[in-house]
Task: inverse folding
């Protein structure tokens, strides 16, 4: 076996080790949310006792003890800081994490398997915030998220709209001329259809854009690539072969930030959800109130709620402290069913 090949294997293992260390630190932060104090001597003793039963002969007990002393010290350091945690759906490197980092770089972003896990975790206080995509200007609304928004008790405390820049990424040792298959989420593949066709690349649907990048890194495949964010490429040690391969440069996604507490700031934009009776002109009567008050609507979306009924999402510019907004909200509650202001907040547009 050649030295260069061995070193590439070492580099791949090092990438996995760093990922596992980060995963462990994230679990430590979640554990910190459940503990009444940082120090837990009994738990530490259990960890060190397990190290004594190490079956790997190349790693002696003294080395592992020293290593874990540093790991536990860093874990306790992070727990004592009590950083704000923001949950997103998908693997690390997902566009939702890109949005989370852009919304508040001081938050620690943690992945969840499903959108419902984000909502439930924020509701229970496991996470301080959750960030979810609600609409893409090319792909339309994110149905799963909007369905959850209809009945949620959470508040919208922020929003951010980001450009979606797709990158073709591959393992460092990959010769781009040897690439035959490209893995990614079906929507990302569709948004890069022209690029894939021009380069005679076979699209292969995968459950997640960042998940495709992670899979590629773990397998070390040299005849395949993935479509993901630049962040995913950095996290999984991949090379960016080409940036901005999406068919339309105007590809953008809007995200909402959720909390189980109301926004303490008045905000300049509001989101609301409501239903109407099956009477002609009811929806018009609601919208007319906003027009008469001079409030600019930025979004109105109808979502099937129950059999034969719809819920409506409404976004409009204005502060909840504005008497005109307060008046329209009160009137809306009287002429609709279940009218609720989801939150008032500031929105970032990148």
Result:
């Amino acid at each position: 076996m050649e030295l260069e090949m061995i070193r590439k294997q070492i580099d791949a293992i090092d990438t996995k080790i760093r990922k596992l260390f980060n995963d462990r630190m994230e679990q430590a932060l979640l554990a910190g949310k459940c503990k009444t104090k940082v120090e837990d001597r009994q738990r530490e003793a259990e960890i060190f006792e397990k190290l004594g039963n190490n079956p790997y002969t190349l790693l002696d007990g003294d080395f592992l003890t020293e290593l874990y002393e540093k790991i536990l010290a860093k874990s306790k350091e992070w727990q004592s800081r009590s950083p704000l945690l923001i949950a997103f759906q998908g693997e690390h490197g997902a566009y939702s994490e890109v949005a989370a980092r852009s919304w508040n770089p001081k938050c620690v972003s943690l992945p969840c398997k499903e959108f419902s896990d984000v909502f439930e975790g924020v509701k229970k206080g496991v996470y301080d915030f959750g960030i979810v995509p609600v609409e893409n200007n090319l792909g339309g609304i994110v149905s799963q998220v909007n369905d959850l928004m209809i009945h949620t008790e959470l508040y919208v405390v922020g929003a951010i709209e980001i450009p979606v820049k797709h990158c073709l990424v591959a393992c460092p040792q990959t010769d781009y001329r040897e690439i035959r298959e490209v893995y990614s989420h079906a929507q990302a593949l569709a948004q890069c259809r022209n690029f894939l066709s021009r380069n005679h690349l076979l699209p292969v649907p995968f459950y997640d854009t960042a998940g495709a990048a992670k899979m590629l890194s773990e397998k070390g495949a040299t005849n395949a690539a993935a479509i993901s964010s630049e962040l995913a490429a950095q996290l999984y040690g991949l090379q960016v072969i080409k940036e901005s391969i999406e068919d339309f440069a105007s590809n953008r996604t809007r995200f909402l930030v959720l909390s189980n507490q109301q926004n303490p700031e008045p905000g300049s934009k509001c989101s609301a959800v409501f239903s109407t009776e099956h009477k002609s002109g009811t929806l018009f009567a609601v919208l007319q109130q906003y027009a008469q008050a001079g409030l600019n609507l930025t979004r109105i979306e109808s979502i099937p709620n129950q059999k034969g009924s719809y819920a409506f999402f409404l976004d409009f510019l204005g502060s909840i402290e504005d008497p005109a907004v307060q008046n329209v909200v009160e009137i809306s509650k009287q002429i609709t069913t279940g009218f609720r202001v989801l939150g008032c907040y500031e929105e970032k547009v990148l």
Observations:
- The first strand starts at residue 85 and ends at 89.
- The mean pLDDT is 90.
